[in-house]
Design goal:
alpha/beta; Rossmann fold; Aminopeptidase; Elongation Factor Tu (Ef-tu), domain 3; 3 domains; 6-stranded antiparallel sheet; 9 helices; 25% helix
Length: 389
């Protein structure tokens, strides 16, 4: 065939049995092999495919195979040409590209508190503790009863005053069962106009900014974790799918973490919480070596291993993110309580889970103290870890 001003185009000779292409087999029986296909082979297969699949002119064909494979050339290319189809070619696959993971960030929204259990004839309220509460810290605390029948009701936790206690009684911790809440009611009937059995009770406290980037406030366990989670969701830039989960009933059995992790079934999870800071009087360094101002604690084990034993891959991910980005962190092995991470890592067939906690003073009391520097370091470390996936 000659082209151009001085040339005349002529038809190339066509022989049905002439070789038209050498294509590779799929390799299902071993190594892919080169197969010679004639013009007749190519056209016959293409026409047969169009007949068997009822393809019509201008139909769209999705080609998922490369043309150097027999199927890709015969069915994906020649079929399109013979039957007048439109073709969509799948973009090139990157060798070794991994499936984008799903990540669950879990931060519990609940806090320790109380619940109305009984109202006596004088209108005083007996209560049950909800979550891990030391009875010693309850005395004379100001509370709010969240009424189910009206507006919130303020109250104060009272007990037998020291003026009328015997010497041997003064040296004993007053138990919660011996305390009551005074809501100013004149009798039981008056109290029942304001509250009901089962109404929730929270502690009253205020927020304060301390010097040296410290803050004081109510329920930093786990308002801090919730804040960290929201900030990470704002800042993260990753191919992974990240779920921010505000779990419930962590303080009474890690319940919300179990149900949400089962529903999402993520590839990995990180629980966000607070941990005991051992930098104040009354605590020995070996009892609580994690302190405020030195970054979040990467939990390696809690509850003496009865809780979580962090999987090596998650531990390495968090430590690497801290080291490579010069973010302060601490490592913690504790004998004390546990977190949502324990429930999550035991969900379904097991979910690789880590725990990152902000060191906090006076947790599980009515007021706590933590460092905003540590909070920021926690946000940065998790963000960098997720971005590296």
């Amino acid at each position: 065939m000659e082209l151009g001003n001085n040339y005349e185009a002529t038809d190339a000779p066509f022989k049905p049995n002439s070789p038209a292409a050498i294509v590779l087999t799929s390799g299902t029986t071993g190594v892919p092999k080169g197969a010679v296909m004639s013009n007749e082979n190519l056209n016959a297969i293409a026409l047969e495919q169009g007949y068997c699949t009822n393809m019509e002119k201008n139909d769209t064909f999705l080609n998922i195979m490369p043309p150097f494979i027999a199927y890709g050339l015969v069915c994906g290319v020649n079929n399109v040409l013979c039957n007048g189809l439109e073709m969509i070619i799948i973009p090139k696959f990157e060798k070794g590209e991994k499936k984008a993971p799903t990540v669950m960030l879990a931060s519990h929204m609940d806090e320790i508190g109380l619940m109305v259990r009984y109202i006596d004839e004088k209108g005083y309220v007996k209560f049950s503790t909800i979550g891990g509460i030391n009875d010693q810290m309850l005395m004379n605390q100001s509370v709010i009863i969240h009424s189910s029948i009206g507006e919130d009701v303020p109250g104060v936790i009272g007990s037998k005053p020291p003026h009328v206690t015997k010497p041997e009684e003064r040296n004993k911790v007053v138990k919660a069962d011996d305390m009551f809440i005074d809501i100013g009611a004149k009798d039981q009937e008056d109290a029942e106009k304001m509250i009901r059995i089962g109404d929730k009770i929270s502690f009253r406290a205020w927020f304060e900014e301390y010097p040296n980037d410290l803050i004081m406030g109510k329920a930093l366990d786990n308002r801090v974790g919730c804040y960290v989670m929201m900030e990470v969701l704002k800042r993260v830039n990753t191919r992974a799918t990240v779920y921010g989960v505000g779990t419930v009933q962590e303080e009474v059995g890690l319940k919300g973490a179990k149900t949400s992790a089962f529903k999402l079934n993520p590839d990995m999870a990180i629980a966000l919480d607070v941990t005991l800071s051992g930098d104040h009087p009354g605590i020995k360094p070996e009892e609580a070596p994690v302190v405020m101002g030195k970054g979040p604690a990467i939990i390696l084990a809690d509850a003496s291993g009865r809780g979580i034993l962090t999987q090596q891959s998650i531990k390495d991910l968090l430590i690497k993110a801290g080291d490579e980005n010069e973010i302060d962190y601490q490592l913690e092995v504790s004998d004390g309580g546990t977190t949502d991470g324990t429930a999550i890592h035991l969900t379904r067939e097991g979910i690789p889970t880590g725990v990152l906690s902000v060191p906090t003073r006076y947790i599980h009391t009515t007021v706590s103290v933590c460092s905003m520097k540590d909070v920021e370091s926690t946000i940065q470390l998790i963000t960098e870890a997720i971005n590296s996936l």
